[in-house]
Hints:
The complex is a heterodimer. Chain A is mainly beta. The N terminus and C terminus of chain A are likely disordered.
Amino acid sequence: MQAEGQLRKLLRIHRDDNVLIVVSPVRAGDRDLMDGREIVFTQNIAIGHKVAARDIKTGEKVYKCGVPIGSAKEPIPAGAHMHLHNLKSDYIATYTLDKDHVFVK
Amino acid sequence: MFSSNNSPKLQGFLRSDGRKGIRNCIVVAYLVECAHHVAREIVDSFKGQPVHLIGFGGCYPNAYADRMMTKLCTHPNVGGALLLSLGCESFNRHRLAEEIAKTGRPVSTVVIQQTGGTRKSIDGGAAWVEQALKQIAEVPRAPLGVDELVVGTVCGGSDATSGISANPAVGRAFDMLVKQGASTIFEETGEMIGLEDVMSARAVTPELGHELKASVEKAAYYYKQMGHASFAPGNAEGGLTTIEEKSIGAYCKSGDSPISGLIKPGDVPRNGGLYLLDVVPDGEPKFGFPNINDNAEIAELIACGSHVILFTTGRGSVVGSAISPVIKICANPETYERMSDDMDVNAGKILRLEASVDEVGEEIYKKVLEVASGTQSCSESLGHQEFVLTYKSFEPIGPACLPM
């Protein structure tokens, strides 16, 4: 397992996670080490946001804190920002959502 | 991994039901708001001594409040109880006093109308507490194993950091405690929307899994009736993408252990393991919000036998509790720097990449043992003893809820 000290901006919360959390602001062009491999960020990413810890396939479950938080909508390369554009909820309970939002996929 | 050999040898206060306390306090309990002042005056005259104020303000009877008061007054951290009644409220003071007396604890009831008013009630009550403190100093001590501890967790004053530092670290501490045989309790079903299936899959039986799922569905319905909109997917600006992700913030305090049972306020787990406390009332909403503030949740965790409460906060809560010590785990490093006197553990180190989640989890575990061995937590040494109890209604748990 990689030493967490190697990551300067990214936090791994749980061993099963395939996302890392940005803990200090990332600027496009910044470099960081991820599992021993250097990655170059292609965009600014704010604190609290997620990046892929490794390449993630379409439909693959995404884990944060060791818990599935949804699945990938498209192939996501390691180091890419993960948010509404490439990650969707797998939750389909209708009772918490307004009728218009039932089965948002 | 922290080995149990390094653990301090714990001593507990042995109670007649076999449970052991890590504190030995007298509770002064008012049974209606009208007796609150007299109770507080009595408690105030014992500053610095283990005399705690609890009570129920309502004048109308409520089975939940009866049960809560009975469980709190017979909690292992409690050595004896003074009950304060005005005289005409509906609370069944006779039954409460009987239940306490059955456990062998010293108990006395001051009825203000019969005693002759405020002054005489304060004087009489204080005199009783003074001798009761001497009496409970004689309570036998017995070795206390980590497997006898009950530890609850709650979050309050949360911010975006809570879910990524303090809460996962508490989850790691819970895993360590469960491994050592302790009972651990998490709650906040209203904040687990989207994780019903994930949580159900951790249940030790499919039937329990069904109950866990139903408890979250109940919470979702209840909060919707309250007009609470916090379940709508949102807060994308802070980086949260899905409702599941929003919910894991609170959920990850439960760690990775299998879930051994579903309990309701006042149910005490009899075996080690991880338990979900369902704090949302049963039936149609009747008395308002399930819990009006963090201390209402803490009181329920304590009524379930919690010796210690792990309280995570990002913005910076300062509360403690009557009866059981509250350990504060601060998620946000800036809040920690500003409010360090109130914080027992700085989980903000995780965000500064100065410590891993595992390391802070271990620090929390050690802090639990330290506080269990008698060291005061920050809120305790600052004199915090908040307490609140309001109206609620529950059905008893079904047979599927405690399969072990």
